[in-house]
Write the structure tokens for this entry.
Amino acid sequence: MRQIWIIAKRELQSFFDSLIAYIMMIAFLGFSGFFTWLYGGDVFFVGQASLQTFFEVAYWTLFFFIPALTMRLFAEENRSGTIELLLTRPVSDWQVVTGKFLSTVILIAIALLLTVPYYITVANIGNIDHGAVITGYLGLILMSAAYISIGIYTSSITNNQIVAFLLTIFIGIFFHLICGILAHSMGGTMGTFFNYLSLQNHFNSIARGVIDSRDIIYFASIITLGLVATEATLARRNASK
Amino acid sequence: MDIIVKNLTKTYGSQKAVDNISFHLKQGEILGFLGPNGAGKTTTMKAISCFIAPTSGEIEVGGYSVKENPDKVKSLLGYLPESNPLYTDMGVIDYLKYVAELQKVPKEKVKSRVAEMIAVCGLEAEKHKIIGELSKGYRQRVGLAQAMIHDPEVLILDEPTTGLDPNQIIEIRELIKRIGREKTVILSSHILAEVEATCDRILIINKGSIVADGSYETLSKKATSSEIIHVGIEGGEFDTVYQALKELPTIAMVDVKSAEENTFDIQSKPDMVSAKAIFDLCVENKWYLSQLTPIETKLEDIFHELTAN
Ligand SMILES: Nc1ncnc2c1ncn2[C@@H]1O[C@H](COP(=O)(O)OP(=O)(O)OP(=O)(O)O)[C@@H](O)[C@H]1O
Ligand SMILES: [Mg+2]
């Protein structure tokens, strides 16, 4: 556990040193703030105290920001060869993977924490469904974690950050949109299948305030799958290609 | 701490990068790893450092198997990879601290170890820079510093002195020798003089197989069963001298170096010595010797003989 934390700490440090962390947070707060307060579902006009718009916007902002955060994590180590130094330390491949995963989850959690003032302000305007807010945040964290684990995986299979970024977006679009569309147009068992795969469905159902174990299992499986696949990629250096 | 390599083989696709090599290195030995490009030196070192798993064979460091106890083995050894990869966006001190933490150096000792490594590797003047700003030689020093930060029992250094200036090369060699008195060191190099100067034992590999293993003395004895002497003879005609030398019974071959100066390289027959015969020959003919030096086989020659196709 200590080793995981040491790795996570370094990655976090690197996010802040390279300014990516600041850029990401400012943009995230800016976007979500702008849309929440000024544009469209203007809380003052709707007259209803809800963070629904905020969650929707945060969701899409993270959709583009997370790949930009994760693309570096392994691709850069692969390119520069530092992966060799890292993996010859007394750490297991799994600790390296989870350390990097944790660093990004923490960064996102910090960004989300910074939006708590939005919540407090809105709560002052009118009656807010506190439960829905909490589950909304939970949904964002789960969705981010799942997406981060996908991003880490794509980063591990290449030494080019741009490739990692695009691959993550691509996989993201599949889970976010295409599954939903396919589910709609297909119906039947295939429809149910794609419906279950759709990240947005699970996010929406959590954000509405219902915590269903199926949604949790869904996110947990994506996270595990991504991390295990990453570990497998690291182990491939041992295979006789 | 001993390193035992048993029948190590590593294949990449159809190519055998390392082919069934075995050796046993004892504590307090410094092993010099020699071999032409692509011989399999780096591959062997990567396998010992647990970066790549062997295709077959066993490696033990201090009694711990690389396969079963990689974490233990990794904590015992310090490794400097060939290309010396570093996080270029980190500061020198931050980086060394990070590695010290990963290597489980006790918290209260991290600072003093980092300071010590900075002093030992001559990084004092550059320690506040970002690694990306350092010159190649200084980066190499950071690479060495990170390898030794936890005072490892075993050091694996892949071409440690590349890019260093001559002063630093000497310092690092001395350092390696000092460390090698108590610890176990493997280093690879293409500078034969360096290996000769620092290592107790030399291992030459070629195309994945060991072709020589032993101290410099044993290798040079093995490589030359017959002596070679460089002689210069004056006071006689070139042709007569040359002819007379060739007829000496102990001499196998006479190689003319310079006809004007009457100098020759003479190879004796196996296990024979020719110095006395040459001297007597000169006395007999009233010539005199201007030169008579035995030529030592250099590591270069041994290397060339064993690895040239
Ligand atoms: N990742 C890899 N994939 C495929 N082949 C590889 C890989 N790494 C090494 N090889 C091959 O294995 C052989 C041994 O390489 P190795 O790096 O061990 O040589 P070396 O003795 O260190 O050479 P040098 O003196 O040039 O550093 C080479 O033929 C090389 O092409
Ligand atoms: Mg090499």
Q: What stands out?
A: The two ends of chain B are 36 Å apart (CA to CA).
